[in-house]
Amino acid sequence: MRMANAIGTRPDTESGMRDSHGRQINYLRISVTDRCDLRCRYCMDEVMQFLPRREILTLEETAIIAERFIARGVRRIRLSGGEPLVRRDFADLARALGRHVKSGALDELTLTTNGTQLAHHADMLFDAGVRRINVSLDALDPAIFGHITRGGDIAKVLEGLRAAKEAGLKVKLNMVALRGVNEDQVLPILDYCEAHGHDLTLIETMPLGDVADDRADHFLPLIEAIAPIRARHDLIPLDERTGGPARYFALSGLKTKLGLITPLSNNFCADCNRMRLTCQGRIYMCLGHEDHIDLKAAFRTHGVAGIDTLLDQALAAKPLAHDFTVARGAAPATHRHMNVTGG
Ligand code: SAM
Ligand code: SF4
Q: Which member of 2, 63, 105, 262 lies 3.0 to 4.6 Å from 96 by CB, making a disulfide possible if both were Cys?
C-alpha cells in the first residue's frame, strides 16, 4: 500500500473542516494501540481485555487515513494510546507522519507517552520531526507512582525524561490530580519541572470506563489541587493555546508554565477543535460519547475514496459537548476507557 497518495486529491485545505456547530476541526488525536505496560488506576481496570490484533489498523493504513485528515485541513496530530511506544512499529508511523511536518502540510506532530520506553525512542522522535511531547507523571515518590500505575517503575520514566531533554524535545508533564492519592506530589512535580525546564499540566479525572475505584472518591477539582501552588506563586493567565483544552498560566518567579485541564469543573467544549481516530479505525467525535463512525470497513472496501463521505458524516454528528459528572456510584460516561480513545 502506498502512503503518500492521500493528500492533495481534494482541494479543501483552505476551508478546512467545520462541524455543524461551526467549530473548525484542525486537530486529530490518534490512539495507535489500546495496549499499555502500565495500569493507571484512574485509566484502566487491573485486568483489561485488549483488542485482538486482527482488528487493529496497520500502521500504513493509519498513515493513509491520517493523510486524508490532513488533506481536509487537520494541522496538528498527536499520537497517543494506550501507550504508543509499546507498539512495535511505532517508529515507522512517526516517520511517515513526520514527513508532513517537514513538508509544511502539518504544523505539528506530537506524542503523549507514559515515558517508560522513551529513553529508546527520544532521538528517533526528534529525527522524525517531533518537537514537543507530553509525558504523564502523577507522582515523583516511587511508592505513590507504583501505587497509581499498579507496579510501574519511576526510574524508567525519569530516564526517559532525561533522554527526551538530551534529544532536544520540549516536555510537558501531565499529572492527573487525585484526592487522597497525589495532592502532596503537586509541588514536588512543579519543582522537578522548574529544575528540568519542563511545563506542567494538571488534569481532572474523567469518568471513562469502569475502574476498580469509585472515581468520586478521588475526584479533585483543580481549584483545590492548585492551592499549594497559589500559596507560593501568583498565577498570571496567558493567552497562549497549544491546540488543546488546557488554559495556561505563568507562575511568579518560575519559568515553568502551568496548564489546567478542567473537563468537570469548567467545561471547554465550545472551543473543541478535534476528532479522534482509534487503532480500530473508528472516529470518535467526542471523548465523552459512545457515538462513532467506523472508517476501517469503508477504507478496506473503497480505499481513500471511502473516507471522505464518512468524515463529512462525522462532522455533522459531532456533539456540542460532553456531559461528564463524577458522582458516587454513578456509571461512567462511556464504557470504553481512555486508552481506547487516546487521552
Ligand atoms: N499512555 C500514555 C500516557 O499515559 O501518557 C498515553 C495515553 S493516556 C490515556 C493519555 C493521558 O490521559 C494521560 O496523561 C493520562 O494521565 C490521561 N488519562 C487517562 N485516563 C484518564 C481519565 N480517566 N481522566 C483523565 N485523564 C486520564
Ligand atoms: Fe497506560 Fe497511559 Fe492509561 Fe496509564 S494513562 S494505563 S500509562 S494508557
A: 63
Q: Is 150 left (phi over 0), alpha (psi -120 to 50) or beta?
A: left
| Structural domains of the chain ordered from first start | 17-341 (3.20.20.70)
55 CA to centre of own chain = 22
Stated pTM of the model:
0.92
Structural contact between residues 31 and 83, judged by C-beta atoms closer than 8 angstroms: no
pLDDT in tens, 303-339: 888 898 899 988 887 877 776 666 777 777 777 777 8
Question: For the chain, how are helix, strand and coil distributed in percent, rounded to 5?
Answer: 35, 20, 45
- Contact in structure between 186 and 155 (CB atoms under 8 Å): no
Q: What distance in angstroms lies between residue 311's CA and the mean position of ligand 2's atoms?
A: 28
Specify burial of residue 267 (Cβ count, 10 A radius: 0-12, 13-18, 19+): middle
* DSSP code at position 287: T
Q: Find out whether 57 and 91 touch, Cβ atoms under 8 Å.
A: no
Ligand 1, CB within 6 Å, residue ranges: 36, 42-43, 80-81, 83, 112-114, 136, 174, 176, 203, 205-206, 208, 338-339, 343
Best-predicted range by mean pLDDT (8-12, 24-28, 52-56, 121-125) = 121-125
The pick from 33, 51, 79, 114 for probing ligand 2's pocket by mutation, whose C-beta has the most ligand atoms within 8 angstroms, reads 114
Nearest CA to ligand 2 atom 3: 43
**Residue located nearest, by CA, to atom 4 of ligand 2:** 40
SS3 of residue 236 by DSSP: strand
pLDDT 10s digits, 136-187: 999 999 999 999 999 999 999 999 999 999 999 999 999 999 999 999 999 9
Give me ligand 1 centre to Cα 112, in Å. Answer: 8
